[in-house]
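[audit] Reproducing an earlier prediction to check determinism. Same input, same settings, fresh worker. If the tokens differ from the archived copy the diff job will pick it up downstream; this log only records the rerun itself.
[audit] input (194 residues):
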Amino acid sequence: MHAMQYRVTLPADYDMTIIHRRVRAKGHLLDDFPGLGLKAYGIRERGVDGSPVNAYAPFYLWTTTEAMNGFLWGPGFRGLSHDFGRPTVENWLGLGFASGPATATAPRSFSRRAEPVPAGTDPDAAVERALEELERRAAADGVHCAAVGIDPHRWELLHFTLWADAAPTADGELYQVLHLSAPHLDALPRGRGW
């Protein structure tokens, strides 16, 4: 599994209904994309859930690197880059994934929390703690699914959780979900990624 996100920050006075219309018109195009575990079409709106910015920031879980590459070098990402400029694409190696009790419910939000693994910290111990947290989080009421990944270049853990309703405000950056494409959600490996 591979996790990926790009965040397009928009002007403070940007009309976010443009993004809502874009997702309504194009969101279904990835509903059967090969190798896509899920794409949560996330947005942040200035002043909502404490967000200081307007942003379009979808989050992806891929079953393979080939699938992720197929998207990045294909017409969908090319179109986004044409419309908004080419964003920086963050990606993390998947450490674990778990379905939650609300997996049958369409999610309304997701949370994203980055956690540095400081120099001098045992990375094995940090990963074990993150996997234990993943299991606890995935079992919580209202959780659709949760994942944890790591960027070994920056030594950063990423905690991602899809929520059936509003995400807890103390859970990192919060995003509204406008659409969920999850054609191969069942193909994402459950539990530890190795």
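[audit] rerun output stored. Observation attached for the diff report: The longest helix spans residues 123-138.
[audit] end
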